[in-house]
């Protein structure tokens, strides 16, 4: 069976993030820059999603000064080091049923992640969604992590953050001879 390649449509795709701390949570969005999803027999078998880390937005902080202060902090070396690393990349390595094994690269650091995917493909359009849990400390984001600092009390930030990903992609190539 031949592979089908679907190119991600960034304007019709979104990533919502949630970061939690002892006293609550923050949420926002981050943009998909580009990517592709590869199907074989109507099932996802591979792909790449490139994220524009400089596009991160915070939705729950409405005060402009506080929002800007937190965005500046997320852009700093304490978190995403956006100036040096303007992109994060997810490379799908394998898919078993709905379970995806992938490599996630943030700040130039690559680690494996696993998550479930839901995908629906037609002849020309594919939609996919996934919930990805990321341990930020694996990517040198140690700020207020209980793994690295003691006595943080109610300033502790949990290590895991959540990405709720919704992708729309359009078919660009069919019957591509690629071995999976």
Task: Choose one word for the global shape.
Answer: elongated
Which sequence of SSEs, written as H and E, runs from N to C? EEEEHEEEEE
Low-confidence stretches: none
- CATH domain class: Mainly Beta
User: What's the architecture in CATH terms?
Assistant: Beta Barrel
Q: What's the number of extended β-strand segments?
A: 9
Organism: Dawidia cretensis
Domain Lipid/polyisoprenoid-binding YceI-like: 5-170
Protein name: YceI family protein
InterPro entries: Lipid/polyisoprenoid-bd_YceI (IPR007372), TTHA0802/YceI-like_sf (IPR036761)
Question: How would you describe this protein?
Answer:
This is YceI family protein. Pfam families: YceI. Residues 5-170 form the Lipid/polyisoprenoid-binding YceI-like domain. The protein has one helix and nine strands, in the order ββββαβββββ. The radius of gyration is 18 Å and the shape is elongated. The protein has a single domain, classed as Lipocalin (Beta Barrel). It has one helix at 64-75, and strands at residues 3-8, 14-21, 24-40, 43-58, 87-96, 99-106, 109-121, 125-135, 157-176. Strands 1, 2, 3, 4, 5, 6, 7, 8 and 9 form a nine-stranded antiparallel sheet that branches.
Note the main attributes of this structure.
Lipocalin, YceI family protein, TTHA0802/YceI-like_sf, 180 residues, nine-stranded antiparallel beta sheet, Lipid/polyisoprenoid-bd_YceI
In short:
The protein contains one helix and nine strands.
How does the SSE layout of this entry go?
Blueprint: E1 3-8, E2 14-21, E3 24-40, E4 43-58, H1 64-75, E5 87-96, E6 99-106, E7 109-121, E8 125-135, E9 157-176
Antiparallel strand pairs: 1-3, 1-9, 2-3, 2-9, 3-4, 4-5, 5-6, 6-7, 7-8, 8-9
């Amino acid at each position: 069976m031949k592979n089908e390649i679907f190119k991600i449509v960034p304007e019709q795709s979104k990533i919502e993030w949630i970061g939690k701390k002892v006293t609550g949570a923050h949420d926002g969005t981050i943009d998909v820059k580009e990517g592709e999803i590869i199907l074989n027999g109507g099932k996802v078998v591979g792909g790449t999603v490139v994220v524009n880390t400089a596009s991160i937005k915070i939705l729950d902080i409405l005060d402009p000064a506080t929002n800007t202060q937190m965005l500046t902090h997320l852009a700093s070396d304490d978190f995403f080091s956006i100036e040096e690393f303007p992109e994060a990349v997810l490379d799908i390595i394998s898919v078993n049923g709905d379970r995806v094994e992938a490599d996630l690269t943030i700040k130039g650091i690559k680690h494996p992640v696993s998550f479930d995917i839901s995908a629906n493909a037609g002849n020309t359009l594919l939609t996919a969604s996934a919930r990805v849990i990321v341990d930020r400390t694996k990517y040198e984001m140690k700020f207020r992590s209980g793994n690295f600092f003691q006595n943080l009390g109610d300033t502790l930030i949990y290590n895991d953050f959540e990405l709720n990903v919704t992708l729309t992609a359009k078919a660009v190539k069919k019957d591509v001879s690629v071995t999976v």
